[in-house]
Amino acid sequence: MKRRTLLIASAATLGVAAVGTAAWAYEDSHVFVPQLLQQLVGDFRMDAEDQRKFVDAMTEHYGARKLKALMALYKIRAQTGLGSDYTNPKVDQFERRLVTDFMVSTDYLRQRQAENPKVSFLGYRLPCSNPYARFEGVS
Fold first, then answer.
1. Could you tell me the sign of the dihedral formed by the alpha carbons of 129, 134, 136, 139, in that order?
2. What proportion of the chain, given as a percentage, has pLDDT over 70?
3. Which of 77, 89, 91, 137 could be disulfide-bonded to 83 (CB atoms 3.0-4.6 Å)?
4. Which 3 state secondary structure label does DSSP give 121?
């Protein structure tokens, strides 16, 4: 085989592998985020419209590119185990922020006593959605 043919074939193979990897790492945030929340928080039900509002608000806050990058890093680490001293803390922080944003943006804390609770989106990053933190009428 000629050297030029080998180089072209190698470049084509690498290009196909790169496109395949990008497609594998890319996933719709409206599918990925609710599935990840189910894994991190546990069983709960949420209307599709509320899920869409939560993910849209999250995308607006973080930016679409940053959210896609964090999702890709998370997926790569979860499915391949690959990570670095730079990416692992970012993925861990993404998990923590996702759970925190979910808790303060929904009524999960009020509904969690029920098995498989139905959760509603209240607004993104509300100051406090913990019903026990409100002290009304206290002088």
1. negative
2. 72
3. 77
4. strand
